[in-house]
Design brief:
There is one protein chain. By secondary structure, the protein is an alpha+beta fold. It has a domain at 4-68 and 121-186. The chain has helices spanning 31-36, 105-112, 141-144, 146-154, 165-176; strands at residues 4-9, 18-20, 23-26, 42-47, 57-62, 65-67, 86-89, 92-95, 124-127, 129-132, 184-186.
Length: 210
């Protein structure tokens, strides 16, 4: 049975997730979700209090494909996407010149992992079945899905993937709510603009599952 992941975003600037040309990608930040999520799993992102205190819904996406071993960052069809911020250079991954997200060596280790031969975190989730709200998101889901609202409010710097029956049922309904998971649907622009050097680590990147 597909799993449902949900977490809070402290940054929503078009980098994680990146939504371009009817494709949503999660290539940086959230290394644990990127490592464990599989095809047909669902990822739901809400705003952290620091981004918007109403914990509005930012996006819902079904994973249609998963790239591993840093394949997303190698030359090919994804090279021009704005979250393709690393490249294979001199036998290892390095930050691309002009990358508009992240910017420090620590970010590379956080996103891809250590090593020159093995980058265990270099996984990218791709979705063409998503609904991205961004700055146009709202907390309207709270009235329809009160168990989800309570779980989101209590969530700290981590993500949830194991749910009791009531929460799971509401998350499944939320995933089908509105236009979610009926093809690509973009309803808003990112909440903020990219700023070089700003990390997307908030919202539990690298923190153990709850």
């Amino acid at each position: 049975m597909p799993k449902i992941y949900f977490y809070k975003l402290t940054v929503d600037d078009g980098g994680a997730p990146c939504v371009e040309e009817d494709l949503l990608s999660l290539a940086i930040c959230k290394p644990m979700i990127r490592r464990t999520a599989a095809k047909d799993d669902i990822v739901i992102g809400f705003a952290a209090n620091s981004l918007n205190p109403d914990n509005r819904l930012i996006y819902v996406a079904r994973v249609n494909d998963k790239l591993v071993n840093g394949d997303y960052f190698r030359p090919g069809e994804y090279s021009r996407r704005s979250d393709c911020i690393y490249e294979w250079r001199g036998g290892r991954f390095a930050a691309r010149d002009g990358a508009i997200y992240h910017g420090s060596p620590d970010d590379l280790v956080h996103d891809l992992g250590k090593g020159t031969d093995d980058y265990p975190r270099a996984n990218t989730l791709l979705s063409r079945e998503f609904c991205y709200f961004g700055a146009s998101g709202s907390d309207a889901y709270k009235k329809t899905f009160p168990i989800v609202a309570k779980a989101v409010a209590a969530l700290g710097r981590c993500h949830r993937v194991h749910h009791h029956a009531g929460l799971l049922a509401e998350l499944e309904r939320l995933a089908q709510w509105n236009c979610a998971l009926n093809g690509a649907c973009i309803r808003g622009q990112p909440t903020g603009k990219p700023r070089l050097g700003v990390s997307h680590r908030g919202g539990g990147c690298g923190v153990a599952e709850c």
